[in-house]
Design a protein that fits this description.
Elements (H helix, E strand, L loop, with lengths): L1 H20 L10 E5 L20 H4 L4 E4 L2 E11 L6 E2 L1 H4 L6 E9 L4 E9 L3 H13 L2 E2 L15 E7 L2 E9 L9 H8 L12
Parallel strand pairs: 1-8
Antiparallel strand pairs: 2-3, 3-5, 4-7, 5-6, 6-9, 8-9
Length: 204
Amino acid sequence: MRKWIIIVVLAGVAGLGAFLWLGDAPAPRAAVLRAEPSTAHYAPIATRALDPQPLTVAEMFPGPSVSAGTTRLALKNTEALADCAEAAWGSAEDALGGCTQVLRARYETEDGAVSGQFLIFNLADSAAADKLVAALRNGGFVRPAPGTPDGFDGSRSWAQVRGLGHYVTVSWVAPVVPGSKVDLTYPQVAVDGLGLVIQRRLVR
């Protein structure tokens, strides 16, 4: 009897190990995260009905790089997702009702020491956007973009989440080299600055 108990326990441990090894554990979250809901400033784009034109990759990511201070990050790849759930997990995935698209881009510093990504979610209205902001702050998060380096260190990463009318933007940067001491201030500012493109929609 004892022999069978040991076998069952070992099988359970092996199964747990396989579960973790296969990557079914939750994706990483940002270690430092700031989240801001939408404000009255974005009233002209508070609903998709007021701002019906879909986002495009060319609109959101017009240049080959972004920069802040002396830091430059090169654009590595972009994608447009019709299934918003592909870009989020946990409570964030559950808060995507009415989401019609996600645009995502991945960036790297010239020395490869920092990797970053920027996402923008197109939701029905500012209430839905604020719900997603809260979910990103309190539980789930976005998934790493395709091509993210294996060394992307979520435990030392920074992120900024913003509600901008019926949109939500997420900028997320992290060091890539294990144990390296990297100041993420300028990389974060550079990637987060992509959200300024949305200001143009306020005056259409």
